[in-house]
Amino acid sequence: MSNPSPVLSTIIFVFTLQAILLSGLLLAKRPRSQSNVFLALVVFFFALMALNIALVNVLISYDIFYVFRYVQLELLFGIGPALYFYTRSITDQGFRFSKKDWVHFLPVALEIVFYRTSIYRLGADGMYDDVPHPFTSIYLAEQWFGILSITVYTIFSLRRLYRHHRWLQDHYSNIEDRSLRWLTLPVIVYSGFWIGWMLLTEIDRFVFDRTLREYYFLPTFVGLAVVTCWIGFRGYMRSHLQVDIKQPEDSKTQVNPPNAEQLQRLNELMKSQRPYLDSDLDLSRLSELLGLNPRQVSALINQSFGQNFYEYINDHRVEAFKERMSREDRDRLTLLGHAYECGFKSKSTFNHVFKKATGQTPGEYAKAQKNKSE
């Protein structure tokens, strides 16, 4: 066990208590949504783990560490299901948590029972003995199964986030307010944390005889507490956003293959009406202008240009920006002002899309055009 550190323990306490407060605010928010409930559970489970570590150091300071094994609660088997059902709730508006879904949380109940047994207490304490206790192997097996559970559910969660992002790009030209990319990194961090933690502790135990523990134990959980607090705060703030995301069309609907006449209508529409200048343009609106089914328009863009809706529309916006940079009155607006006039909704998206399409930043392109005209 690492030596107690008042400073690091205090930092962990501060961030974990804030995270627990945020989980309570998410549960109390009205109207209550199932996505907020599951996010509150995710934040609470991780905060609880970090809080336990801080508690360890307090008990060590008072030389009563033996009390900890009677109160410790690491709900590893609850993290994965809570994370998965959170991502499912925010990516599928039609999803409703049902009675049969409770089976995913059954291991949590078994885990709580396990932590109240002598098998857990003796097995966990036995890790720090020169000769491990016979129950230690059972304790480690439970821990590794918990890590496996988190990893499996994380894979399914990331898969849902990826599919959701791809669906958004097929239906919207601006996805900043709808994208869940902010959640991807914390999900990966959460999963990677436990795998890295278990591997590091085992290497330290068998190779370095626990001599590295002072360098990684508390700092690692400080990082966990900070990330947990951040995701709780970010999730709480985003829960205030009411974003209208229309559900996908029925994939079983029969759609006729795109034809030359439809492609001509699309090209003429983009030239004459320039609908891409509308920052809120989506697939449904473009389909209305063309008088076609949204799935027909999506297939038309995919097959004719090898792009999704997001890429297709933003390429037109890039061309509109380049056309503006060739004008003599280009200095009447800033580069971002021109971007907004072309239909972009944020500076970050504009910079990313433009660099991807041209290989240059907007500033570099504008400077080159200005030098060319002088």
TrEMBL record:
Chain segments annotated as transmembrane: 6-28, 37-60, 66-86, 102-123, 143-162, 182-200, 215-233
One Pfam family of this chain: HTH_18
Keywords for the protein's UniProt record, in alphabetical order: DNA-binding, Membrane, Transcription, Transcription regulation, Transmembrane, Transmembrane helix
All copies of domain HTH araC/xylS-type, residue ranges: 267-368
Superkingdom field: Bacteria
Record Gene3D superfamilies: Homeodomain-like
Cross-referenced InterPro entries: Homeodomain-like_sf, HTH_AraC
Keyword Transcription: yes
PANTHER family: ARAC-FAMILY TRANSCRIPTIONAL REGULATOR
Protein name: AraC family transcriptional regulator
Species this protein is from: Reichenbachiella ulvae
